[in-house]
Amino acid sequence: MLLEVRDLHVEFKTRDGVAKAVNGVNYSVDEGETLAVLGESGSGKSVTAQAVMGILDMPPGRIPQGEIFFQGKDLLKLKEDQRRKIRGAEMAMIFQDALSSLNPVLSVGEQLGEMFVVHRGMSKKDSRAKAVELMDRVRIPAAKERVGQYPHQFSGGMRQRIMIAMALALEPKLIIADEPTTALDVTVQAQVMDLLAELQRELNMGLILITHDLGVVADVADKIAVMYAGRIVETAPVKEIYANPAHPYTKGLLESIPRLDQKGQELYAIKGLPPNLLNIPPGCAFNPRCPMAQDICRSKVPPLFDVAEGRQSACHFWKETLDA
Ligand SMILES: Nc1ncnc2c1ncn2[C@@H]1O[C@H](COP(=O)(O)OP(=O)(O)O)[C@@H](O)[C@H]1O
Ligand code: SF4
Ligand SMILES: [Mg+2]
Predict the structure, then answer these.
(1) For 78, which of 67, 82, 91, 246 could close a Cys bridge (C-beta 3.0–4.6 Å)?
(2) pLDDT digits (tens, 9 = 90+) for 279-313
(3) Within-domain flag for 159
(4) Cβ atoms of 317 and 249 closer than 8 Å
(5) Could you tell me the distance, in angstroms and rounded to a whole number, from the CA of residue 277 to the centre of ligand 1?
(6) Distance between Cα 101 and ligand 1 center (Å)
(7) What is the CATH number of the domain that holds 37?
(8) Ligand 1: distance of its center to the CA of 279 in Å?
(9) Alpha carbons 271 and 111: distance in angstroms, whole number
């Protein structure tokens, strides 16, 4: 495995207490594989990714437990300077908001070129040629003419392509894309997603695609991990989860996707809100919202049950959910 996260816990010290943002996450990604991480806002998707990248705010953040194996090494045991070398070169991240991630006072060419100057010791002149090459690669029209322009001179979609180009510059083994298309118009979303998927295949990278939008991942992901209250509640190959979810929360998420053939019908949404991480309900964290909850759900935390080859569900009633 390229990346293996094991029993990862992350908590934040806040004025009101300890917020348990990640509570024992396990996931893995291999070369050329795409793992989609799904879940409502606040479920711990980004915090898990930040821990993998080594960019967590610490403090207030803390990793009391867990391991993050990347190419066989536990990243949590490395010193900061070793991690810095891995960041950018071996693993890179694409964020939702390109405008705040890119430097507004440096031209796009300078920012792309800097990757090669800093990590590869390239000259300024050669690095500019590399920048144009990268812009071509992410299909920014007239790259040669636009390489000297600043981030605000590009459209949202083009800026997101520049972020992708930055992430790909050093041909990392792993890309983490955190809601990479959320801020874009629907039509542009699809183009950027297609580009990302295509480049990933070409370079045989591992991709972790974080999103709250199940509609986005159906075509690009190999497998899905659904997160709730800092835990993985279901994990499965993408086709199987769509055909037959084994967790009531996944089922709820799937039923909330707008469908073209059901226009005008009221959209099903999961009732209630995700829990307060300072005070996660006992038993199954989803029980206050779950239409299938029974007594045992309020007292016993469901472990991840093996549902089938490569499929797990953290629900006491996964069988009933599958059959429903
Ligand atoms: N720097 C921080 N300080 C305190 N709490 C944080 C910090 N970063 C994230 N959190 C909390 O961790 C929880 C999980 O956040 P996050 O991983 O960003 O969720 P999402 O699934 O939407 O990406 C949230 O409740 C958030 O408030
Ligand atoms: S364990 Fe119980 S509350 Fe949790 S998802 Fe399953 S049925 Fe619902
Ligand atoms: Mg997030």
Answers:
(1) 82
(2) 999 999 999 999 999 999 999 999 999 999 999 99
(3) no
(4) no
(5) 9
(6) 18
(7) 3.40.50.300
(8) 14
(9) 45
